[in-house]
Amino acid sequence: HVQLVESGGGSVQSGGSLRLSCIVEGYHDSTYSLGWFRQAPGKEREGVAVIGRDGSTTYADSVKGRFTISRDTAKATLSLLMNSLKPEDTAIYYCAADRWSAATIATMTPDYWGQGTQVTVSS
To answer: How many helical (H) and strand (E) elements, i.e. helices and strands, does the chain have?
Structure first.
């Protein structure tokens, strides 16, 4: 059973940066795709960034050039570096894992979810 534990959320002013981290516990198969999703108040959950087993990455158009997803398979950790943050990035951010190794931002269907971490960007 895989458990995902996020950390690193917080409050920042517009233009600032934050790094989110996710520890993947019970991670026996490095073939999983990993990703970050977010949900803003009153909106549906949306994909932000996904990284496949081979390290290939895909991003939502709204974060391209500002966010960077990375994974450390040996340490079973996932990170999201968020730069040039905007108020519209305010949301709860969730770490997710998909047993399919080649998922993308368009195809990822998570089998496991973290509990979420709040990111608030003020103008």
So the answer is: 0, 11
